[in-house]
Every structure is written in structure tokens, then in C-alpha cells.
Design goal:
five-stranded parallel sheet, seven-stranded parallel sheet
Amino acid sequence: MRGYDILVLNAISPAGLKRLPAERYRVAKEHARPHAILVRSTDMHAMTLADSVLAVGRAGAGTNNIPVAALSRRGVPVFNAPGANANAVKELVLAGMLMAARNLPAALEFVRGLDGDDEALARQIEDGKKAYAGFELPHHTLGVIGLGRIGRLVADAAIRLGMDVLGYDPEITVDAAWSLPAQVKKAGSIEEVLRASHLVSLHVPLVEGTRHMVNATRLAHARAGLILLNFSREGIVEEAAVQTALASHRLRAYVTDFPTAGLRGLAGVIALPHLGASTREAEDNSAVMVADQVRDYLEHGNIRNAVNFPEVVMARESPWRIAIANANVPNMLGQISTTMARAGLNIHNMLNKSRGEMAYTLVDTDSPAGTDVVAALSRIEGVLAVRDLPADPGAGTP
């Protein structure tokens, strides 16, 4: 019986691994030639990946630790689990807002440093607590930059706390816009959000266009006393600009999930040890989501939540299926159809979609393709990978 070897590079939640049936999936920490890799934080850039690898699944959202471009050139999709940790991050953002607004870290340090009996403690507390007075969140404005799943949850929670919310996301999808609370006011720029908000929370991926998105130039336009929260990625914020803004009191606080040597011990910095997705529920959700996606791809060729491939999901209407990853170039579908016709294959159903330079095609046929057809399709210039996916698990090739 055909089976799949799954290489696990980190501790993946058992809730996810259970989605891979033991009779078909051999999950292990060592495989010389795995069909798929499941990973969390391991840096894969220096790894030599066997040509047997058909898919990589990241049990989380970010894929900076995965050589996505190199895998794309091989026709290998990289799956992630967007939104699986959304509630965990939302709760940590709320905690960060409260910690900064009520000066809780400094207050905790103050109490930890007290000495004496109860009477002495009471005097010290009464004399010192004024230094830690904060403000309540209702009627203050929270700016949310990035209105994906996490950003929308943060916005909704802030509204429920009585805050005004100003949102900015030039690339918001139609579905995301529909699910955004109506009370969220739309901003026209990052500068507008920084100027108008008392607190700003960042929820964007780290790509070339967002690196140092919050920098000295933009912080110069920020409202004095702004609380900036970064639970996205370290590189979204320019560290030197934060240091300068804290020293000038342009920033009241910088709350981040990404501690660095330059921020450690700096007044006004609340740094957490990358706890955004560190809940049992988030780890379970991420593992289940990515395991299901990798399995669906290996067995049926369907693609959901791949960072480098288009979304392609087609219900099976035939026992025989071919999956083709190719460069997004003209006449590719014509060449695929012609090759199949020459082999005497009748196309029952076909779905093709593209995303940037990558295209992907699923073809259900009325009869088996066979190795000769797979080889002929593979020889088409621009074709990156071809897989024969019959419904019978004992037939075809992984």
C-alpha cells in the first residue's frame, strides 16, 4: 500500500499528528527521504531537502524560517495555519494594553522590592503607588494596522471594552472587510493612525514592504505618549527609532513579543518571550489545521492556505487525478490538454489557477494516466512537478 513518510522537525501537537492515520502515514523525527515536512520554528534555510519532499507544513502563521522561494522553484507548496493562533495573540495584545495603560510591570517590580513588616509595607505602598497611576481603556483610541484575522479580533475586543478603533489595511480582502465590526473607522495611512491613536497594535506579516514599517519618520508624526504594541514580527519596527521615541517621550511604552539586547532593561519597554501562540489551544489548532492541509494535498492535490501557491480545491468526480505545478506562462493549459489527448485520456474535470509566477492545475480523467503520461507532462517546459493521484491508495505514485 502506498504510504507517506512525514518528517517532524519540532514538537508538533499530538492533536495534529492524530489527523495522519498510522496505516498510511509514517511520522518520525528522522526520514532520509520524506514526502512532507512538518515544522514550527526550526530554521530550514541551511537544510538540504531531499527531492522526495512534496510539501512543507508550518504549524503557525509565519514562514520566514522556510526557504519558500527555493521550494516554489521545485513546485513544492508551503502550507501554514493563518488564524489558528488568532485568539491567543488577541488575548496577549489585550494583556499588553492593560499592562502598559496601568503600569503593571513597574508596579510589580515596586512591590517585589518592598521590605519590612505589614505596617512598613502599608506605608511604602501608600507613599509609592501614586507613581504607578495609569488610565482606563474606554474612550481611548486604538489604532489597528493590519486587519487580518488577528487584527479584526483585536478591534472587536477593543470595541467591547468601550474603545474607539481606527483601522488601516490597504490590502484588506473583501471577506475580511465584511467581517470587520462596523464601528471601526477607516484610516487612510499609517501616519494617520499614529497621529490619532492613544495605542497602536501592529498585525502585518514581515515582508520586504513592511520591514521597518514603523520607523523614525513615522514615529515623528505619532501622538505624544503613544503606546505601541508589536505582536507581529520584530522587523516590522525599527528598534533605533523606538529607543529615540521612548527617550523623547514620544512613546509612553513599547510592548513587544520580541525581546532584543538593545531593548532589554530599557525604560518603557515591556518585552515578552515570544508568547503570542504559546497556548495549548493555539498549538493544537495550528497542528490540526496544517496536518489536514498537508494530508489533503498529498492524497487529493487540493491546496488550502499555501503561501506560495494559489488556492485550488476541486471535489473528486473521478477515481483518477493528476496534479500539475507549473510556471504561470501562456499556453500551458493547451499543452497539458494536448499531451493528455495524445495519450487517449479524456478530461472529466479540470481546474487551473495562478498566483504570481506560480500556477497549479488539477485534472480528473476518465481512465488511469500511467507513468508515460506523467513523464510526458513533466517534459513540458515550465512544468515543475507532476503527481498521479488515483483514489485507490495502493495505486499511483506519491
